[in-house]
Each structure stands twice: as C-alpha cells, then as structure tokens.
Please model this.
Amino acid sequence: ARLRSRPWHSWTGAEHPFQKVIGLSDGAARNICCPRNEDFREYLTAQFATIAKANPEIIMIDDDCGLLYRSFKGCACPACLQDFNRRAGTNFTRKELFSKIVSKAKEDEKYQSIYVISQGDALVGAVKAMRKGIDSVNKGVEISVDPSKSGDGGILDLDLIVDIQRAALLVDGGVHPGGLHRDHQRTDVDAVQ
Model:
C-alpha cells in the first residue's frame, strides 16, 4: 500500500493550536503550521505513527511543506527569527531581514544563505519528527516526497529549496519518486546536517 500524507494541508480554515507561519515578506500570519514549532512536531510524530499502523510501503509527503518558494518567502515567527539571528549574530527585525533577503548587494548574500539554511533546518526537524512517529511503529516504512515544483522561484533559488526538502526526506532512508535513492544523495544530506 502507498499512502500520501498532506499534513500542511490538514486545516480547513479552522484555528489550530500551533505557531502559524508569519510571512517574511509581509508579517501576515498564515493558517500554516511553522515546521520549527515543537508542539507541531509532536503532532506530526503522533500522526505519522498512526499512518504507519496501516503498514504502507511508502508514505508520500506533498512538496507543499516548503517555505521559501511561497509568495511570503518563508517564516519569520519568533522562533524562526530568533534562529536566524542566532546563526547570523544579528538582531534583525522581520522587515530588516526581508530587506537583506531581497537585496542584490554582495554583502547581503551571507544573510540570504543563512536564511535558506535556517528555514531548511526547520523542515529537516519536522521530517525527523515524522520519521520518529513512523519508526515507533515500523522502521521499514519509507518516506517519499512529491517532486513537483510550484511557485516562481522568486528571490531565492528554488532548486536549492527543493534539494533541502529532498535531503531532509532522505535523512531517514526515504526515496525520491524521480528515482533518486538515499545512497545516491549522501552529499546533499551531509550538507544539510
């Protein structure tokens, strides 16, 4: 059996108890759960344990769990902003960080790189929570990611974001439907960790 999991699409407009993604570009809250939020990660662990009880061969995760390719350009909730500032040694506000991210200035490239890695690590943490739930039931179940690309790529390199997502899924021994298996992608995994 193959299951497709869409935890980022699980809300019907009703309020949920988790930290909402705060758009970097505009500061608006989205009804999307921040993957860095520990309570949401606990929820993912429980949900994926439930899914694993169905004993699927593979669980496919939709690619919409991404952050950076969306029009709001990632999450600037308090935890995500704090993580970026800790890594960068800065104290940027959301607006200040956004100005660095959209900047074409050479000196701002370091901030763009730090931001991409920080957001990628939020996704990696969420995927590890999924894997924890699966492994609590059946370590033989693999995770796969839907390889479609959406969004315009915008200010950040879409291929890098897709690679981060794919690497996050391959950390656990999952597969990519395009035929790319974990053993062929170890370099990308190491780069994300």
Remarks:
- The beta strands are 2-5, 20-22, 29-33, 58-61, 142-145.
